[in-house]
Protein: Adenosine deaminase
Organism: Sagittula marina
Amino acid sequence: EEELHHIVHLPKVELHTHFEGMAPPAFIRGLAKEKKVDISKIFRPDGSYDYRDFWHFLEVYEAATSVLKKPEDFARLCTAVLEKSAENDVVYQETFISPDFCGGGDVGAWKEYLHAIEDAATAAERDFGITLRGIVTCIRHNGPDQARAAARCAAETAGGFITGFGMGGDEKQGKQRDFAWAFDCAREAGLQLTTHAGEWNGPQEVRDAVEDLGVSRIGHGVNAYTDIALLEMLAEQDITLEVCPGSNVFLGVFPALKDHPIQKLRDRGVNVTISTDDPPFFHTTMRQEYAALAKTFGWGEEVFRELNATAIGAAFCDKATREAIT
Ligand code: HPA
Ligand code: ZN
């Protein structure tokens, strides 16, 4: 009991969150009211986000995000979400930010959104003691042309706050290699790379992510667990999985946490880390993730310290930032 309390309150490093996906429903409702847009259909009577499955989630996500219009709206979002993360003892966080939602891929507009977010993050670092870094993210179901525009935005703002480039969205659309130009563009700008793979598709998707895009991290990647040779390759190449156990269980990727392959992945020597993905959408928090993992797998404090050390090692920030959070 005492150990669980200690584990739950450990300082945490979180690598996989979607910026808009961290917005509490009350925050989105407040903005909708201010802007006089009716998105009441995306909420349940109890106020939580309402969706049936992952694909409906993506629609509800876009509807919620539609009330975030100006750079200032994203700045307010940044302050709100970092306060929540800090309440969960998160000391360092990386978040996916999409030019698709911030200016539609126009570099000039993107810079205005990004500066507003970055200023809010700097203030939150001072006020709440949490460091944020951004991963510019293309959206797979928006296609390769939009992804190229996102990559150009990323390249134009690489360095400092923006440390990486990634891809989210519907894994069932297209192939990883369709986005190779975007990832090459980001790599040439000095950005580190991650892509969602192996959440809805099988191990081949994870292989494609590594072989066709050259990423050093994978969003989820959990369906790699059935392919022993792939797990050996991930371990060998020091690839890190951004595992989001609560998200996976809530969306039905695995029936319950006890069925989640995270322990198997660790046993095979794969680098794994813990994140919440879109906490209010999946009714989770970093404290809840730690508590559930400790109970379900019987992990002690040393395991969580190891998971955090892995996350720090795989963080996309520079060495000085990395050292400041250790
Ligand atoms: N997965 C994939 N794409 C997303 C997500 C997610 O959890 N959230 C927002 N876009
Ligand atoms: Zn995700």
Observations:
- The first strand starts at residue 12 and ends at 18.
- The two ends are 26 Å apart (CA to CA).
